[in-house]
Amino acid sequence: MKAIELSQPRLDAFRAASVATPEPQRGEVLIRQRAASLNFVDVAVASGNYPGPVFPLIPVADGAGEIVALGEGVTRFGVGDRVVAHAKPRWIGGRPRPYEMTQMRGISLPGSLAEYVALPANAIVPIPPHLSFEAASTLPIAGTTAWNALRAADVGPGSVVVLLGTGGVSIYTLQLAKAAGATVIITSSSDEKLERAKALGADHLINYRATPDWDGKVLDLTDGLGADLVVETGGTATFARAVNATAPGGTLFTIGFVTGAEAMVNLLPIIIKALKVLGNNTGSVSDLRDAARAIGAAGIEPVVDKVFSQNEATEAYTHMAAGGLHFGKLVFGLDW
Ligand SMILES: NC(=O)c1ccc[n+]([C@@H]2O[C@H](COP(=O)([O-])OP(=O)(O)OC[C@H]3O[C@@H](n4cnc5c(N)ncnc54)[C@H](OP(=O)(O)O)[C@@H]3O)[C@@H](O)[C@H]2O)c1
User: Domain 143-279: which topology?
Assistant: First the structure.
């Protein structure tokens, strides 16, 4: 089969390759891959900033496609079913032990930039009927993480949610939070992106370049209380302000490192406000299934900013690595 390989950790080290087509084993399905979605983690792998990859590898963790063959014993799915694949196929549900965490698509398992992939039937989820392959390919990492953020903070009508930047996770969380009846405050470096977020339902817009003390603005907007949920995607440059912007008893959902992974923390506000500082590692297949069901029920259309072909991997990765160029998700449409 045809594939794109990443030969070494460099954003320009992609090459066309011909590799053996996988055979679905017992309990597996063979998927013809139709779309793949880029995440920050893929860029980290291709930049040498993520532990574990062995090169060459078939890159990109997230993907969607249709089942073309069933391994022995598979009864839950049929040929022709449209599915998304979880990036960590061993993590079906519950608390992950090392066994569940050791394998990840695009790092230690073949990723989505190939014609076919064989995966356990337990690791795939049906695509909500209203979604294209391209839109659905964004579900596993960004969609599941956004869904887990809302659940972690029990977000519902009246909740206040703060989102940092307008990347994939923030925009998914915006859409899910509005569907749940929450008030959303979103920040961005760009007024034009803030207007796009407003069109998706964002209630309050803060340009973090024009207003570097955006946490103070969050407090102004919430009568000094702060937000019930802050989705902390920024890392080094944003963590302390995110602590300040979180309401007493609120949830600081600590997931990202867009500006770096190290932060100096004053523990006192966390202690005094009794914050729930929660880490998250995307989620399990069960979480993905719940996220897909919610996105299907709410009729949410994932925001795909730009679609690349599989032959434009360097362009796509460079686009994401540049930071600030996209709004929502970057996707590969796969046509071999
Ligand atoms: N732990 C998990 O479960 C999990 C899951 C998914 C993602 N993540 C992590 O979460 C982070 C975001 O992921 P993503 O896929 O949404 O990334 P992304 O699509 O690349 O979005 C990054 C966005 O961050 C914003 N940004 C950059 N500097 C900022 C700053 N100083 N203050 C506020 N916003 C800033 C930019 O928004 P503007 O252009 O609007 O300024 C940019 O578009 C990444 O670190 C990723 O690895 C973690």
Answer: Rossmann fold (3.40.50)
**How many angstroms does the Cα of residue 144 sit away from the middle of ligand 1?**
15
Ligand 1 midpoint to CA 20 (Å):
35
Residue 231, classed as helix, strand or coil, is strand
The set of residues, in sequence order, having a beta carbon less than 8 Å from that of 289 and lying 6+ positions away, is 125
Supply the residue whose CA is at minimum distance from atom 25 of ligand 1: 165
Residue 184 Cα to ligand 1 midpoint, Å, equals 17
CATH superfamily of this structure's domain 2-138+302-333: Medium-chain alcohol dehydrogenases, catalytic domain (3.90.180.10)
Nearest to 151 by CA among 123, 121, 177: 177
State if residue 187 touches ligand 1 by the CB under 6 angstroms criterion: yes
Domain-wise residue ranges, the chain: 2-138+302-333, 143-279
Sign of the C-alpha dihedral computed for residues 114, 122, 292 and 80 taken in this order: positive
Q: Tens-digit pLDDT profile for the chain (336 aa)? A: 999 999 999 999 999 999 999 999 999 999 999 999 999 999 999 999 998 899 999 999 999 999 999 999 999 999 999 999 999 999 999 999 999 998 999 999 999 999 999 999 999 999 999 999 999 999 999 999 999 999 999 999 999 999 999 999 999 999 999 999 999 999 999 999 999 999 999 999 999 999 999 999 999 999 999 999 999 999 999 999 999 999 999 999 999 999 999 999 999 999 999 999 999 999 999 999 999 999 999 999 999 999 999 999 999 999 999 988 999 999 999 998
Residue with tokens 């880029």: 38
Distance 76 CA to ligand 1 centre (A): 35
Q: Whose CA is nearest to atom 23 of ligand 1?
A: 167
